[in-house]
Design a protein that fits this description.
The structure is a homodimer.
Chain A lengths: L6 E6 L3 H9 L5 E7 L3 E3 L4 H5 L9 E3 H4 L6 E5 L1 E6 L4 E5 L8 E4 L2 E4 L3 E3 L7 H4 L6 H20 L3 H7 L1 E5 L3 H17 L13 E6 L10 H14 L1 E5 L2 E6 L2 E6 L2 E6 L2 E4 L3 E3 L1 H10 L9 E3 L4 E2 L2 E6 L4 E3 L13 H19 L13 E7 L2 E6 L3 E4 H15 L3 H17 L17
Parallel strand pairs in A: 1-2, 1-9, 2-5, 9-21, 11-12, 11-17, 12-13, 19-22
Antiparallel strand pairs in A: 3-4, 6-7, 7-8, 10-18, 14-15, 15-16, 20-21, 23-24, 24-25
Helix pairs in contact in A: 1-10, 5-6
Chain lengths: ~450, ~450
């Protein structure tokens, strides 16, 4: 009988990829340590609902220790990863809760799944005026800005300046941008209607900007058209084929056929230009592997880093290459991350049994995006396309199903029922947002 | 037929007193403007549950515009009050959402109900290391500190330093301090038990410090004894008769019979030394009325400021004097504030009809404090004293009843049911706390 020390797996990142890897290692003969700089898993697909006050932050977040409470082979360390020492097989940790400047964590297998952020097309200075919608801190900042803009409009006597306060721009017409623009429209036209004595929130102008030629470019063209029409019904102007060239505290500017356009606005929300976590670059430097234009590290068909079969990279920060060496170009979606996390866990267990694992294969179950109340688009397996109410019901079901924790599922269902019936939003609080963490 | 401009009432502060005044003016021939620096009403008696992750902040907060949506004679202005110009009958506003440095708001009747904060016995430097539990910002800061202390203990190899991370001090043994100490004990011994691999949260030491000779000094002695015993059953050490003389990042010190004691701890929560809002002083200076030792402005039996029948001060920031000129010494409780808000609304309506209003009279319905799961004390009308489960059920019923908004009532009930059944806490998030606003 073996008295070998257990195989140590360190997982960096408690998002969809990392957390699913940890949970699927439940019965494997390993000792898992999950490292995250936040003590909770964020259900990122609903972060935009926090940004518009439809949900409280705690309702889309699950404390990591609570999720893993019963998994006796898993521990959690709250820290930032400062570097990887692949030679010594150690992760270098910083920002520790006890104030120590640095600690090292040894591993036999390392999984890095640190996700992605929005980039600002090389204009980091826009981050301050146009907060991004990837983190809970960003969502709370946006919530405060959105609600404050209506408060400012209420006090502003000058019609032109009031108009700027009631103009909202969302940059990026992927699923997050589309959902955000739709939610701002519903916030203004339904929730806040009648809440003010001078401002008229229902007169708000909401524009959705993207350099691409259509909204939701990852969806089939027909669904993009449905989405654009549903956005217009909500009162959002989808301005596609427009590349943003400047953002400041009082305006956003873009290029279009007729030349440059400058639109006065006090509120810009950023949801464009996905870029892998800086940990992809750090890991690439440590492993001698290059990152691609979006900052993602290349991994092989088994999700390992070249020359390091004991190091896997998953999720948004990795670019998977097939057996032929070509990138698979997987979308940056939760299902991809979940399946990769589960694959990684299986691969580790397989390898510990001395067997070889098959290449990762993404099972595409479809793609969903919601636009608003009874408005969504869905591309399901087998070429089935849905829009309107059926797509929206599919979206609701899937999101409630994947939300972690029975308690959160019930709370979110309850909030959504209230919002549906009353068009109210219970979490419209200004000023409780932390600064978004540095990417 | 009168074409008089409507009587303008400005209410400063959307707490229990101010918000109840506004709502009770619903049918009066007046135009009401509520000024608050936050866009929500905080249900302060449950703020401590946010501080321990039992409830999300949005669940104990109600957006003011949502509360007043259907009250057509009421508006809301989000701003800080910088001063009172009683001669011109104007309130001077700052920190406006549109960035204007200052605006003035004219009134015919002014109600000021800006509440109170905890003072630090003249040691403002303690505020940074020992956050207070009056605001939602403070509660979120405390939540982050409490949870981080357990995270630090998990990583700390040195037993003595780990001990300091697992030692928690609550200063002030009034209802808030007692509730907070009890919640920390339940967090450590129930919720977090088994969540860590190295730290043993159930070994946490929780001390409750107060200079008074017993916990809950405002309650009858018998109930204080019950409360102390229930605290001890939860594992809290009630250290009464101890005056805190120093707090720093690594310890708290107090005087006791044998001399000074210094206890190493990394987490101190402050709930002592109530002091009226600085607006009481500003109003006192404007009206030529002195404030008392606790910073409260003196008001007459009809809650008006001497020499200014058009200015009322309510709630924690006012000291009501009876017809004989003696202070009534009303407790700083929500029921007092609620009754004063309703009285003020009635008094204004009465005066507009040309009649005189009777002096304010506080109807004491009793006093409740909870200590933990099935543990509470209650002093009801007619000298009925309850403790244990009956008192706890009374506490639950009253708090759910007074919580504003049907949606929040249901959400809080649901969270409490989950916590009761699982001993879990759904909102255990670190790092989303804003800084507490300046008092």
């Amino acid at each position: 009988m073996g008295a070998d020390p257990p195989h140590r797996v360190v997982v960096v990142g408690g998002g969809f990829a990392g957390l699913n890897a940890v949970r699927r290692l439940r019965d494997a003969p390993v000792e898992v340590t999950l490292v995250d700089r936040q003590n909770f898993h964020l259900f990122q697909p609903l972060a935009y609902q926090v940004a518009t006050g439809a949900l409280a932050s705690a309702e889309v977040a699950a404390p990591l220790r609570a999720v893993l409470k019963r998994q006796v082979n898993a521990g959690v360390v709250l820290a930032t990863v400062k570097g990887f020492d692949l030679g010594a097989r150690e992760v270098v940790l910083g920002d520790l809760p006890d104030g120590e400047p640095e600690r090292r964590l040894a591993y036999d297998t390392l999984i890095v799944a640190a996700g992605s952020n929005y980039s600002y097309f090389g204009h980091e200075e826009w981050r301050e005026v146009a907060p991004e919608l990837k983190s809970i801190g960003g969502a709370l900042t946006i919530r405060g800005r959105l609600l404050s803009a209506f408060e400012a409009a209420e006090l502003e006597p000058d019609p032109e300046r009031r108009r700027a306060w009631l103009t909202f721009a969302v940059v990026g017409a992927g699923p997050t941008g589309v959902e955000m623009a739709g939610q701002i429209a519903e916030l203004a036209r339904d929730t806040l209607r009648g809440d003010f004595r001078h401002a008229r929130p229902e007169q708000a102008r909401i524009v959705l900007l993207d350099g691409a030629e259509r909204v939701l470019p990852a969806f089939p063209e027909g669904l993009s058209r449905h989405a654009a029409r549903e956005l217009e019904e909500l009162g959002v102007e989808p301005l596609v084929g427009r590349t943003v060239v400047d953002v400041d505290a009082e305006s956003v500017s873009w290029e279009e056929d007729g030349g440059p356009v400058r639109m006065p606005t006090r509120t810009v929300v950023w949801a464009a230009g996905v870029r892998a976590s800086r940990l992809a670059t750090l890991l690439g430097e440590a492993a001698g592997t290059e990152v691609d234009k979006a900052g993602r590290i290349a991994v092989g068909p088994d999700l390992t880093v070249a020359g390091h079969p004991e190091v896997l990279a998953l999720g948004d920060m990795a670019s998977v290459h097939g057996p032929d060496g070509e990138p698979l170009r997987l979308p940056g979606l939760a299902p991809v991350a979940i399946q990769q996390g589960r694959y990684a866990a299986r691969a580790i267990a397989t390898r510990l049994r001395g067997e070889r694992s098959r290449p990762f294969h993404y099972l595409d179950k479809g793609n969903l995006a919601t636009i608003g109340r009874s408005k969504a688009v869905a591309e399901l397996r087998g070429g089935i396309h849905l829009w309107g109410l059926p797509a929206w019901l599919a979206w609701l079901t899937v999101h409630i199903y994947y939300l972690i924790g029975f308690e959160n599922r019930l709370l979110v269902l309850l909030r959504w029922t209230f919002s549906f019936l009353t068009r109210g939003r219970g979490a419209r609080l200004i000023g409780l947002g932390a600064k978004a963490p540095e990417p």
